[in-house]
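Fold it.
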Amino acid sequence: MTAINDLALTTLEGASFTLGDHKGEVLLLINVASKCGFTPQYEGLEKLYQNLKTKGFSVIGFPANDFGDQEPGTDAEIATFCSTTYGVSFPISSKITVSGPGKHPLYDALIHAQPKTRDDGEAFRAKLRGYGMTPNPEPEVLWNFEKFVIARDGTVAARFTSSTTPEDPALMAVIEAELAE
C-alpha cells in the first residue's frame, strides 16, 4: 500500500499536492459537505487552523457527496461557498469519494490505519438509524465531517465521528499531544 503522504491529490483550484507537502505538520483531515447539519463546523475548523497553524498544524478538507447528496457543487462552487460563507483559508481538495467501492485511496488508507473512532461510533450509528438512514458498517466513514488526526510522522493518530466538534476536548487533547511530539 502507498504511504498516505505519497498519494496524489488535487486542490479545488486544480493544483496537484500530496500530504507529503505538509511533512512534519500535524494534520486534521475532514470529509466536508456544504449542505449538511455539521457544515457550521467549518467555523470551528477555521478557528482551530488560525490558532495552531504557526505551531505546525493544518486542516485539510475533502469535499464528498457520499452522504445524502450534501455536497452537490462543483469545485468552483465549493471554493466560493467555503470562502464567502465561512472565510475558510485552510486547504481544501477537489471533490472525492470517501465511502464505498470507489473511495479515494487516501480514505482507503485512513480507514485501514484507524478502523475505529475514539468517540462512540456506535452511538452515532444509532442516531443515524433514528433518522431513518442506513449507516455504513464499520470501518467505513459514517457521515460528513468525520475527522482523522495525522501525526507529524505521517501516521494516523486518531479518528473521530462527525459529532465530535473542532472544539471538543478529546480532539483537542490528541492534537495538542501530537503537536508536543
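The chain is about 30% helix and 15% strand.
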